[in-house]
Amino acid sequence: MALSRADTSTLGRWWWSVDRWTLAALLTLVFFGYVMVLAAAPAVAERIGASSRNMFFVRQVVYLAGASAVMAGISLLSPKGVKRLALLGFAGALLLTMATLVIGAEVKGARRWLNLPMLGSLQPSEFLKPCFAVVAAWLIAEAKTAGRRGWVAWAIVLGLYGLVALVLQRQPDIGMLLVVTTVFFTQVFVAGINLAIVAALGGLGVSGLVGAYFVFHHVQRRVDQFLFGEGGANYQVDVALEAFGAGGMMGVGPGEGRMKNVLPDAHADFVFAVVGEEFGLLICLFILGLFTFVVVRGLMRLLAETDLYVILAAAGLLTQFGLQAFINMASSLHLIPTKGMTLPFVSYGGSSVIAIALGMGFLLALTRRRMNRGEEGAAQGGYR
Q1: What is the full DSSP assignment across 107-161?
Q2: How far, in Å, CA of 379 to CA of 382, rounded?
Q3: Tens-place pLDDT, residues 150-186
Q4: Cβ–Cβ < 8 Å for 60, 133
Q5: Contacts of 113 (CB under 8 A, 6+ apart)
Q6: At what angle do helices 55-74 and 20-47 cross, to 10 degrees?
Q7: How far is it, in rounded angstroms, from Cα 101 to Cα 111?
Q8: Ramachandran class of 116: left when φ > 0, alpha when ψ lies in -120 to 50, beta otherwise
Q9: Residues 85, 87, 91, 96: is their CA dihedral positive or negative?
């Protein structure tokens, strides 16, 4: 049943105020998530000796359905509601991320996961990303509008960033730390901070990356593999590039790909290579276009926004979304060193899919058209 503009119900107000184009693009990515896990996951399940070839697919159906519900539900919130939920989410995610250092499951020398009864494995740092972006935006906006007392908000947000950085470094999860840092620096820049301070922060970030190369063996190994490709160390990337080459322009057809049978993490970190082989260059460009559309459209929606908190929060969430997609696709194409980061909504994953849905729900809520007197007055007038 069609909803008219005169519909003053919660659903009616939501439908005529939410960015339906962005919502459609995100749901299209969710659809590709279903298609790609159906194409890639059975081969992976069979290779690792899982109890069922459809194990990953069944799980992903549940994850993506839950993610869609989370995204839609959170998009109903007001900016103030987004802030409150982000504060609660940040506190909970930070405590759970700190808990991984003590009771987390160790995988390849890193402690990033918690094994929870009934819920299985959980990576709480995934939820830190969107929640911290919103919390940081709120504190930076407060600092900019508080006059001389703004230093208190600056001290708090810098302290929280330092705490998050310390916890992620201790796991260690340098890739996650890079994303959080990039988002935070982007928000500081958009807030109009003195360029000298921004440059100093940028220099500090570059120094941190250089330091990570010399301090963390796994970071040094991945960079060296990318630059020098020592002794077949780029096996996953080589197979991924072979998959892209086999797919050509139109692909070999759904389910007909062969590289997923030998490509580790074909359903997760390297799902883009499976897309390339089975669906070809045109669909790869279409998926790239969807990510670009979401980011550009979101930024365009902010041009008419006057609330600094909304601008900073949405800019941070869009930066995070676009950066994560870029890292995944660029890793598969051997444009940057490999990093275990999922392709939003397309890769298999529980924590990552729900966390991305949380962030995009925040974005849809923040970019809804609102009346100057607030959403409560929507029944008496139009939307801004």
Answers
A1: ETTEEEEEEETTTEEE-THHHHHHHHHHHHHHHHHHHHHSGGGHHHHHHHHHHHH
A2: 8
A3: 889 999 999 999 999 999 989 988 889 999 999 999 9
A4: no
A5: 100, 104, 105, 107, 121, 122, 123
A6: 160
A7: 6
A8: beta
A9: positive
